[in-house]
Amino acid sequence: MEQVSWTQMADGTQQDYEMLGRLYTEHTQNEMVANLVTLLKLMEGPKLGYQIDRYQHSLQSATRALRADESLDMVIGALLHDVGDSFAPENHSATAAALLAPYLDEETHWVIKHHGLFQGYYYFHHVGGDPHGRDIYKDHPYYESCVQFCHNYDQNCFDPDYATLPIEDFIPMMNEFFARESKVPGVAPAGMTADIHVN
Questions:
Q1: Residue 167: C-alpha distances to residues 69, 76, 185 (Å)
Q2: More confidently predicted of 28 and 86
Q3: How far is Cα 189 from Cα 187, in angstroms, rounded to an integer?
Q4: Which residue from 174, 143, 5, 146 is spatially nearest to 80, judged by alpha carbons?
Q5: DSSP code, position 164
Q6: Is 134 in contact with 116 (CB distance < 8 Å)?
Q7: How far apart are CA 111 and CA 107, in angstroms?
Q8: Residue 197's pLDDT band (boundaries 50, 70, 90)?
Q9: Is residue 154 a contact partner of residue 81, using CB atoms and an 8 Å limit?
Q10: 140 pLDDT exceeds 90?
Q11: b/e per residue, 160-176, with b = 16+ CB within 10 A?
Q12: Where in the sequence is the domain holding 71, given as residue range(s)?
């Protein structure tokens, strides 16, 4: 097994870092989509008062986006828009947007980043908030896109009777999406190259 001889990064050589970069890239290419499916599945189970769990909500959001012929970016954005709920509930929108940023188009990135605030239109007035808080962005070019995302692919995606597609239907799309060249300079594509088996 290839391995460095040092315990402090300051002692590494160019050869060490080329080897580490290659091993890391191979690993991420083989594991990224599977890891994201695992994150989604962390939301499976507790309904937390809703009629469906957050995992089904995510699948339903992506299903509706797919059936509306949205772009691959929007479908993947819809699928993963709440992926941060299980580990970053206070800033889940920004977390999902940051995770997707290297691959996502600018408009969908903005929508995912701000959807939590925009979603508040439907309930903030019931919990002491301002449902029009989203209007601080009313002059932003993607304002209406975020309004439409929340209306069509978020606030209405809690229906236990909706014919939601299973995660297996989205894995090929995730593979395609994450195989894109990263927008982060010097980073290789992280697309899946191995088969995923969902339990």
A1: 18, 11, 31
A2: 86
A3: 7
A4: 174
A5: P
A6: no
A7: 6
A8: very low
A9: yes
A10: yes
A11: eeeebeebeebbebbbe
A12: 13-178
Residue 183 forms part of a structural domain: no
pTM of the model: 0.88
Integer Cα distance of 149 and 155 in angstroms: 9
CATH number of the domain residue 57 falls in = 1.10.3210.10
Cα of first residue to Cα of last residue in the chain, in angstroms, is 30
Query: Is there a domain that residue 185 lies in?
Result: no
Matching residue, tokens 């290659």: 22
Q: Is residue 55 part of a domain?
A: yes
- Rounded Cα distance between 148 and 160, Å, is 22
Task: Count up the domains in the chain and report the number.
Answer: 1
Q: How many helices (H) and strands (E) does the chain have?
A: 7, 0
In the predicted structure, residue 186 carries a pLDDT above the cut 80: no
pLDDT at residue 9 greater than cutoff 70: yes
